[in-house]
Amino acid sequence: MRQARPGNGRVRLSLRSRLLAVLIAVTAVFLVVMGVVTTVVLGSNERQQFNDDLALAARTKLSEVPSLVGGYASAYINKRTGSVGVLSGPSAATSELQSLLQNLVAAGQAEAYLRQNPPGTLFAISQPGSPALTAVWRPVTPVEALHSGVLRPGASVLMIARPDSAVSSQVRGIVLAELITGAVLLALLGLGGRWLIGRGLAPLDRMASTADMITSQGDLTARMPDPGDPAEAGRLAAAINTMLDRIQQAFWARWQSEQKVRQFAADASHELRTPLTTIRGYAELYRQGALGPDGLPDAMRRIEQEADRMSSLVAELLELARLDRNSSLDLTETDLAELVRDAVADAKAVEPDRAVNAEAPSSLVVVADEPRIRQVLANLLGNVREHTPSGTQVSVRLAWAGQGALLEVADAGPGMEPEAAARAFDRFYRGGRNGQNGHGSGLGLSIVQAIAAAHGGHALLRSAPGVGTVVQVWIPSRPPAGDPEPPVDGEVLQD
Questions:
Q1: What integer is the mean pLDDT of 10-14?
Q2: SS3 for 436?
Q3: Of 81, 144, 236, 463, which is least surrounded by CB within 10 A?
Q4: In-domain check, residue 56
Q5: Helices (runs of H) and strands (runs of E) counted in the chain
Q6: What gap in Å lies between CA 65 and CA 148, rounded to an integer?
Q7: pTM for the structure as a whole
């Protein structure tokens, strides 16, 4: 399979083809090296055996005619290597002959003697300082043998030779067998390797098809098929599926965030439009002269109330925006027990008739943003004042829980309906007091939940009609390292 490379029009082989080509190429190189080594070693052994057999035959034949030859010696010259070797003869004669032939070869005169004297003719060879010898030579394949010696009158020279065509034929047969065997092995390797590589890459093909489907159809619920192999393909499929899970979760979280932003913008517009409409209405009445002297103070009071409400709403929106941006907290060692006592004292000052009890240790120190924790207590106690009758008892409890502090505000009021409790942490949601709509901004519990999340904690609400409401805020003893977690929805438990 071939693929066109983008941009330059060149054709690029697929991974399967490249792996197969590399496998065949490496195997072919290995076979060639092994074939060359085998041919050289076997050929050398065959030629050595050939020379040994020839020397043995010469010694055997010469031993049969010792009486025919007096002082003699026989030797050979290898024309390709220039080496000189002795075949037979008395030690004195062979030493003399070998020395003479080596000198001739070294002086480059051996070839001249062979060219000047035809094979089978007697001729004299000599060098200064050496006695002359009578010699005769015959060509021997692959060795050119020059036999020389001192002959008696009427004596004969015995020449022994053997063709080396059998050795060459054996070497050629070995090379041919290696070529045929290598070709068959490469063909089988190509077929078997293609099947094995295709089987090994099949999971990748299925993953690629799944990825194409996800890309073309945008189906983030699709997952890579399990190859049933715990090796590389299995780990790759598991890693991609984990990545797809996180991408799907990120898209879902983004969609939820966008929905919340849209709802938040719509609710904020509605909440801000109400006081603005009131202020504009009173201003229009004043401009038209519809407000008499007696109605003007009441109109100004209502304008001031709506302006204060709008200012409070804008401040709370700004606070939520800062928390949503994960703005840094001013963390210090804070004694939560002291903050609880201060909040209870403030609540008693605002409503002297309400019984507010504090259950806290003498000291409980955590690393937290003190102003924000004070705001949590103020919002929770403010919700109690807003949504319960004036004589309702309130308990504020503080204790260690795991690796953090658990702050709890419980009231014995009328409680909340399941539908209202489920939306308690929604922004701009105002639960009713005794069935009537509340008059707050609807951001109190949302801010509590956001502050807890900014510290790495969480908020929890538990309520039931006729039982009362309990809001718990867990703050870790030290916020986790790194950026604070983004606010998440508070948890609602219903009795």
A1: 68
A2: strand
A3: 81
A4: no
A5: 10, 15
A6: 16
A7: 0.45
